[in-house]
Protein: Protein phosphatase 2C domain-containing protein
Organism: Chryseobacterium lactis
Amino acid sequence: MKIPSFYFGASKKNMDKSVIEKEKEEFREAHWVLKNASSKQFYEFCFDMDGFSNIKIKNIENLEETGLVFESDKISGIPAAANVYNLTIEFYHTGDPKNLEIKKIQLFVNANPKDLWKNIPADKNADFYKPDEASFKGKFSDKKIVIASKRGRSHAHEGKFREDDFSVLELPSGWNIISISDGAGSAKLAREGSRVAVNSINHFFNSYQIIKEVDENIQELYSSDTSCEIESVSRQNILRLLYQGTLSAYQSLEKIATENNLSVNDLNATLIFALVKKFSFGYVILTFGVGDCPINLINSDFSKVQLLNTMDVGEFSGGTRFITMKEIFSEKIVSRFGITCVDNFSHLVLMTDGIYDAKFATENKLEDLESWKTFFNDLSGNNDDQAQVDFTNDIEIEQQLLDWSDFWSRGNHDDRTLAIIY
């Protein structure tokens, strides 16, 4: 018996329909778990369509209330609020594009860890009031500088003050100075200690006579025809002036303590500073550090990084040292000063431990080039908040650095101060 040809056509059509229904069902029943999101943090999830080559997702209902968007098999965006969202995937089979099917999924958006911390303003009527944050941008020698200082979450949660401080100043004869201080959390007026420390050191060097003497000794130190003896004397003279500057900072803190019936330990604070000037033979950078705040210099082509100050970590079992400690003014203080001369540099970076602990963690990473590349990639926007600091189009760079400084780092909630000369 001859079977009519139309019979095979009908059989093939029925078979195709069953395959389509089977593939739809397999996709509908596939167990998909979307990774959890966090509110106010960038989120991205790509649907794995391997094995479902004939299935196309057309739309995801209820997604708009999450603050996310769907495009090219990917959900992305910044979810606004923590919640459990019931989503409906609308899909179709390429062999049956007119009939939409649905698949139910859930998206869990966790609370942003930042939102779990209170942000209580510090008391403006309190003695030695200090704003919760501060920033600065401007010229520094023939380069630029940007600084941001933000109160840490641990202080904001309790309505306490920002204890970090900074001061930047253009000095006579083309010199510039940037100083940063981190007030000790255990000192009841650390916020004033850090303020006095940075302002007093800048004030000391804001003297034509002192800067003139620094200049003269720098010229002799780097003169091509200077004898070894004169070079040694010039170096000692520079170190003496740096010593006198740091001693003046200590004396200023002692004076404030006496005037307010305080112990100088009530003002405990670290101190780092960098004096910079461009000469015909290169940039001279004079540095000092006491405490656990680093000063780093990155060369022009970003192939080398130097730590320019002694860090008070390890040797003291994690305990830091302060400019308020008279014992640091001993013979060993010479090791805290640095005299550096380079043809050029790309960045000079100073920071408090609120940045250093979160982004570098250990002292050895401060001289690890890959760690610094990661750090600047982070500044460029490669972070959970997509916060970007634009060093090229730097019109709003100080606000950008403040915003970036609000990053989340588990267990690291101290004040954060970062200065970058670029």
